[in-house]
Protein 1
Amino acid sequence: MGSAGAVWLANCIDENGMPYAGSATLIGPDERLWVLSSNPSIHDLELGVRLLEEAYEADLAGLLDVDQFSQRLADITQRRDDDVRVFRRDLKGGSLRSRAHRHLP
């Protein structure tokens, strides 16, 4: 276990003490910054922390490109959101209901 440790979620502020709109920064145990969108429809920050912790735990974070990580997290977040929409559609369509209740709206 090389550089395993905490990954911090930070809000960066400008010279006037105002947070940068639309961004969130993850800080690795090596003090590397990972700037992501704070919009949960673009980046699931909780998942981002989890993925980075895995990368640091495996001592592979040094090989990870910031832009590629951001894109992969955005892709995973989008797929998750799409899966939630499919689940809702299937539930409304009756395919997830027990056989006894398929006739309900």
Protein 2
Amino acid sequence: MTPVRTAGALGTTVRRRRQRVALAIALGAAGGAILLFSLGAAYLVGAAERANEVARLEADLEAARAAVREATARMAAAEERAARLERVQRPAAAPVPAARRSRARSRR
């Protein structure tokens, strides 16, 4: 029979109790290490996805800027054509009649 001073609360020896505690600590440490590894991997995946999203958004922004530049250039060309047509249709030498000028002022 086991002597009383070496028996623990559950009838186990002190050495076995220490082994169980050490095993529980080792399993806890291994679980913690796995958890930390998983969190680190998830962080890296998230950082990579975020970097890809930023690159995609920058490309979209550059495409939008190019579209705006193109539209601005088209608008300037259209304004230039309209100004040329206006000059051709109404020569600069032909003054606007005074009666037309007075009516235009009264409408304002």
Protein 3
Amino acid sequence: MNAIFPSILKILSLVGSLIVIAEDALGPGTGEQKKAKVIADVQARLPGLAGQLGIPEWAIAVFTNSGVLGVLVDSLVAVAQAALPQRDLVK
């Protein structure tokens, strides 16, 4: 039971990092394109990192599911947008 939360936190960190990378790589707009990139990147990278990060197989199966990842990406982006001040960089 104690391994559940650390595993989920590691997965959330990976997904959050890939969201930032997609945001930087693709620039403003293109939300669905960024989401698709993050989902594809997580599905490609997470199984290979599982052993190194000590993530159990069940968590890999759950968090490489496209539906679960879609909800997770949307949720993390919504929380980040709500928590971070929006700045108008173009003046």
